[in-house]
Amino acid sequence: MRYQISGKQIDVGAALQTHVQTELNEVVSKYAQRPTDAQVVFSKSAHEYVCEATVHLSTGLTATARAHATEIYASFDLCCDKMEKQLRRYKRRLKDHHQDRSEPVELLGASSYILASEEHETDAEPESLQPIIVAEMETKIPSLSVGEAVMQMELAGAPVLVFRNEGKDGLNVVYRRDDGNIGWIDP
């Protein structure tokens, strides 16, 4: 597994890198068969250290965890505990669904746009109805079952996930509702 350990305006020493590789490798190898790479980023927010970890699995799914503490090692240990909990749930769900994906998730390319927010005065009329595009990026849309899409959304900690439904070959959306349940849009 490849590791990318970095810090945002923080010097990450060799001892911390060794600790991260050892602990993360132990957690990931326990619950995931073929992890491909892991990215760990340390940063500082006021008086606390923040650790963000992302592990990409060969199945195409991604697990993300984030934690903060007053000590840098403690922030990583909390983050690692969250990652272990997510991977344990992921493995349990795979067993519960009796579904072990043998091939990687197929990804479709798509364009993603960031639109400028319009802050107009209450009396001013907008010049046009066309939004201003701030950035255009390439994004990937995975081909998943509905259960895998919900699992991927929860692993990534995302509020919404667009995916191609393997069963029907159409684009679908799963999202977290305000009441805590999961919504599924199947056009």
From TrEMBL:
InterPro entries: HPF/YfiA_ribosome-assoc, HPF_long/plastid, RHF-like, RHF/RaiA, Ribosom_S30AE_C, Ribosom_S30AE_C_sf
GO CC, one annotated term: cytosolic small ribosomal subunit
NCBIfam families: yfiA
Role: Required for dimerization of active 70S ribosomes into 100S ribosomes in stationary phase; 100S ribosomes are translationally inactive and sometimes present during exponential growth.
GO biological process: negative regulation of translational elongation
Protein name: Ribosome hibernation promoting factor
Statement: the UniProt record of this protein carries the keyword Calcium: no
Residue stretches making up the Sigma 54 modulation/S30EA ribosomal protein C-terminal domain: 130-183
Top-level taxon: Bacteria
Protein localization: Cytoplasm
Keywords: Cytoplasm, Translation regulation
Assembly behavior: Interacts with 100S ribosomes.
Signal peptide extent: none
Gene that encodes it: raiA
Record-stated family: Belongs to the HPF/YfiA ribosome-associated protein family. Long HPF subfamily.
GO molecular function: ribosomal small subunit binding
